[in-house]
Design goal:
Largest sheet: none
Radius of gyration: 21 Å
Strand content: under 5%
Number of helices: 8
Distance between the termini: 44 Å
Helix content: over 70%
């Protein structure tokens, strides 16, 4: 984190044209209306991420109830899935910027284009990633350790990880596109519903109550991500269609 700060300062020092974005900044420019607007968008957005991150943490805890071997296997599979998620996160940030930019211009058709093109891109990438997980499911876990039992379970869980690649990618893209539309309250409720009212309870019931084991936890995660992707995608379509009718 410290290196990032110094890196940014170095960039600003060498690319003088970037100073234009800071040259007009003054402390007396503070306006309470802007502050309230930032909070109204930022706080719900932070809860969206909190609900998702804590859900995955809860899944790891549930896996710990099953056993140490299962938890180790889970961590390998989720770590590999997190790598592809970083690509989705990058595209999601871009979609927020592009959607917000086109919304500011009042070009709703391009708002749709920005959102849907990002969804198509991430779907293609996640399909490729899913195929990679399936084909290399016995090889990838060996990067982390050589325990045969852990590798076997992790390989099995990577099949589940392959399934949730597409809904995971779509939900993060649509969530970010909705932020570009400054729509954060309803998506926050959707994330809470998907992960904490459906996904995690399902994981616990399947894995612990019904004794399905590790795969039960992942079925719950897949359910939560899929429900989130469906509702968020519908929300984006509904809002953009409504904006288009107003033009």
């Amino acid at each position: 984190r410290v290196f990032m700060v110094f890196g940014i300062l170095i960039i600003f020092r060498h690319w003088k044209n970037l100073w234009i974005y800071l040259s007009e900044v003054r402390f007396n420019m503070y306006k309470s209306s802007y502050f309230k607007k930032i909070l109204s968008l930022g706080i719900p957005s932070s809860f969206q991420m909190t609900f998702e991150l804590t859900a995955f943490s809860a899944a790891a805890i549930i896996m710990g109830f099953i056993g140490k071997i299962e938890q180790a296997s889970h961590q390998i599979a989720i770590n590999l899935a997190s790598i592809t998620f970083m690509i989705a996160t990058g595209l999601a940030m871009a979609s927020t910027i592009r959607v917000g930019n086109q919304l500011g211009k009042g070009d709703i058709s391009k708002v749709k284009d920005a959102g849907y093109s990002a969804m198509i891109q991430i779907t293609i990438f996640m399909i490729v990633a899913a195929i990679g997980f399936v084909l290399a499911r016995h090889l990838l876990p060996t990067i982390y350790m050589d325990n045969a039992e852990v590798i076997s379970i992790a390989a099995y869980l990577l099949l589940a990880a392959a399934i949730f690649q597409i809904p995971d990618g779509i939900q993060v893209i649509t969530l970010s596109a909705l932020r570009g539309l400054q729509d954060v309250k309803v998506p926050t409720f959707i994330t809470f519903l998907s992960y904490w009212l459906l996904g995690i309870p399902c994981s616990y019931i399947l894995a612990i109550t019904l004794e399905w084991g590790p795969i039960g936890v992942w079925i719950g995660l897949i359910l939560g991500l899929t429900i989130s992707a469906i509702f968020l995608s519908y929300r984006f379509k509904m809002l953009t269609d409504k904006l288009a009718k107003k033009q």
